[in-house]
Design goal:
The protein has about 240 residues and is of the alpha/beta class. The protein contains 3 helices and 8 strands; from the N terminus they run αβββββββαβα. The longest helix has about 40 residues, at about 10-45.
């Protein structure tokens, strides 16, 4: 009859690693559920009727809200958000100040532009005159935007991260500290932003990997313990004269 004798050191290793691997697996499953809820909430808000800019102040959580805007772009103070990759191609996102008819300034992301040759500035144009737009509020996960090294001259400016509040302070304007992302239309470029950087299916895949590692560790531990038990059973008894 086989005896299970894994030994002290392997037992301590398994006791340390097995809860960690299982914990990582369940954490990835919880992240997948969070992403499912986020996608569902975003979709519900994205298909809702747009509200006026004046109604935004009464909403405690503005993320994904659709807004109806009427006003004009400021073509003189554009920002190019660098290192935006789409379909494996390098590019930038174009952000421009927009003044609503009520006088409120907002920062609108008009979408992605290709930038294949960094020796040549990306080409874009700005619609003139009053425009009717639909945009939605983008609230980045984690830390708020930061505006790194905003220069005092030279527009458009190339930035890596954006702080809308810092931009308004720099320009001396009263503006919302939010980024609005333009919906598809004549004033937009490529506006098919993903709601989340990593979808639920990725988290589920990672969870399966962590659980598989936990199962492999437990299987090796059982195999090693049974083998050591058989080896101990097969050792000849030592007789003392």
């Amino acid at each position: 009859m086989s005896v299970f004798r894994p030994g002290l050191a392997p037992t301590l290793v398994v006791l340390a690693l097995l809860p960690l691997l299982l914990g990582l697996g369940f954490w990835q499953l919880s992240r997948a559920e969070e992403k499912h809820q986020l996608l569902a909430a975003a979709e519900a808000l994205r298909i809702a009727d747009p509200i006026g800019l004046a109604s935004l102040a009464s909403r405690p959580d503005p993320a994904w809200l659709r807004l109806r805007l009427h006003g004009h772009f400021d073509a003189d103070h554009s920002l190019l958000l660098d290192s935006r990759i789409r379909d494996g191609k390098a590019g930038v996102e174009l952000l421009q100040p927009f003044q609503d008819a009520g006088g409120q300034w907002v920062l609108i992301n008009r979408g992605w532009l290709p930038w294949p040759d960094r020796r040549i500035p990306p080409a874009f144009d700005t619609p003139a005159g009053a425009l009717d737009l639909i945009a939605w509020v983008y609230v980045p996960p984690g830390a708020a935007f930061e505006l790194k090294h905003l220069e005092t001259s030279g527009w458009p400016q190339l930035v890596n991260q954006v702080d809308a509040a810092g931009l308004w302070q720099h320009l001396g304007r009263d503006g919302l500290p939010l980024e609005l992302r333009l919906e598809e239309g004549p004033a937009g470029y490529r506006t098919d932003w993903p709601v989340v950087a990593m979808g639920p299916e990725k988290h589920i895949g990672y969870a399966v990997q962590w659980f598989a590692l936990a199962a492999a560790l437990l299987g090796l531990f059982i195999y090693y313990g049974l083998r050591k038990g058989r080896e101990n059973n097969n050792e000849p008894s030592t007789r003392h004269a």
